[in-house]
Design brief:
This protein has about 180 residues and is mostly helical. The chain folds into two domains: about 80 residues, lambda repressor-like DNA-binding domains (434 Repressor (Amino-terminal Domain), Orthogonal Bundle), CATH 1.10.260; about 90 residues, no CATH class. The protein contains nine helices and two strands, in the order H-H-H-H-H-H-E-E-H-H-H. The mean pLDDT is about 85.
Length: about 180
């Protein structure tokens, strides 16, 4: 999730308008909502000092707004937090051991995530049992979903191709 999407998500969670948030960090009343809309849409990216001001106004860590850096432990944690917000991942304990599980509250997201995790689990199990090599497992992971045969992934034609089909059909109807 990009920084603008995180700003919008947390701002909405806090019940703030774009104008209110913009004014609370010092933007002029006349342009506060427009400037915030630009940041949320991704047409502008806030610099570190503005990100800090936004985080303070939203009462979150700047790490919660920035695109997570999974190379750091704190960045990785904020990635998990974003996945909790967006994909229904939950931290839990099963038999006294920490685990990450899917939340069934949003059925559509749950079903999509369950299909993807099931495909991942299937390939990981094959690797762990020696049925496939590390190279084959990595090939599957790094080319996902292209090599995933457990689901029916549909390739959508480009808008250009779709438009040309429509044009051809219209031309034939005219004749």
């Amino acid at each position: 999730m990009a920084i603008g999407e995180r700003i919008r998500f947390i701002r909405t969670l806090r019940g703030m308008t774009q104008k209110y948030l913009g004014q609370s960090i010092g933007f002029d009343e006349k342009t506060a909502d427009v400037r915030m809309a630009q940041y949320e849409a991704g047409t502008r990216k806030p610099k570190a000092d503005l990100t800090k001001s936004l985080a303070d106004a939203l009462d979150v860590s700047p790490y919660a707004l920035d695109v997570p850096d999974i190379d750091s432990n704190i960045g990785l944690m904020h990635t998990f937090f974003a996945l909790e917000d967006l994909r229904g991942l939950r931290i839990d304990k099963i038999d006294g051991k920490l685990c990450i599980r899917l939340d069934k509250t949003d059925g559509n997201i749950y079903n999509e995530m369950l299909q993807m995790f099931s495909a991942w689990y299937e390939q990981a199990s094959k690797f762990n049992s020696g049925e496939i090599s590390k190279e084959e497992y990595d090939q599957w992971r790094y080319r996902y979903p292209e090599l995933d045969i457990s689901q029916n992934w549909v390739k959508v034609p480009s808008q250009e191709l779709s438009d040309s089909f429509v044009k051809e059909l219209k031309d034939k109807e005219v004749l």
